[in-house]
Amino acid sequence: MTMFLAVVDGSIYSHSVCDHAAWFAKRANAEIEVIHILGRRDLASSNSNLSGNIGLGARTALLEELVELDAQKAKLSHKRGRAILDDAMQRINEDGVTAVKTHLRTGEIVDTIQELETQTDMVVIGKRGEGAEFDSSHLGSNLERVIRSIHKPVLVAAREFKPMQRFLIAFDGGPSAMLAIKFVAEKAHYTDYECHLVMVKSPSVDANRELEGAAATLEAGGYKVTTALIQGQPEKALAEYVETAGIDLLVMGAYGHSRIRSLIIGSTTTEMIRACKVPVLLFR
Predict the structure, then answer these.
(1) d(Cα 119, Cα 143) in Å, to the nearest integer?
(2) Phi first, then psi: what are they for 92, rounded to 5°?
(3) What global pTM score does this model have?
(4) Which of 46, 130, 222, 240 allows an S-S link to 11, with CB 3.0 to 4.6 Å?
(5) Nearest CA to 176 among 268, 45, 71?
(6) Which of 142, 176, 138 minimizes the C-alpha distance to 257?
(7) Rounded to 5, what percent of the chain is helix, strand, coil?
(8) ∠ CA(98), CA(26), CA(19), 5° rounding?
(9) How far apart are CA 268 and CA 253, in angstroms?
(10) pLDDT by 10-residue block (mean), the chain, 284 residues
(11) Cα 188–Cα 194–Cα 195 angle in degrees, nearest 5
């Protein structure tokens, strides 16, 4: 049975994550596992420095009070987490998917998703978390780490869900892009949607050959494909194409270079996620 993992955190993106997961699940006849992850900050108060001129008795009393506060905070965090999961299940049920499981987990988000990776076929996560939801220039602090750490497709949900009618595959001929082509070509339940295959590269015989080969793979899977060879900076050119053509979903390879290279010259993946207002399906 196909399984999708939806990661919710109580941010404004959580409902969108549920809606996107449900949309894909209905077409793939998949189950959805919804998880909410409690990190260390959710369960404990910030470390306090009790050194200095505080007497031993006062210090002991303060420590006992902090322990009690931590216990109360942990209890409230669990209640809030369960409420977030209950809300997510209700949302997904209303979207028409009843095969839903929920889990409240404790740990680090990357470690938890890595642990569950073998049990899922796709991870759905919001573009931003609770701390960055109103900052359009800032992505969730864990997003890149999650995408780089697993090898299953990751769907980065946009702020709001809207039904999808046309999608774009950003093709560069690389291994990750070929994974995206293979994934889409094998999924017949998306063939009724408009498929655009776009390559950002200077025109050449080789570029045309690569684009035609990828299009042939998709057409063999039952898709009608619109191809385009465009020029410019990939992140800018693709974002403009998405806007102009009314694309509802961007499909692309992710983080083909190391973190060090990305720090020096930037990452096309990060810029595309940041610039596009549509969901992005990523492959590594």
Answers:
(1) 20
(2) -65, -40
(3) 0.85
(4) 130
(5) 268
(6) 176
(7) 50, 20, 30
(8) 80
(9) 10
(10) 94 95 96 92 58 63 79 90 97 97 94 95 85 47 86 94 95 93 94 96 95 97 97 92 96 68 52 88 93
(11) 75
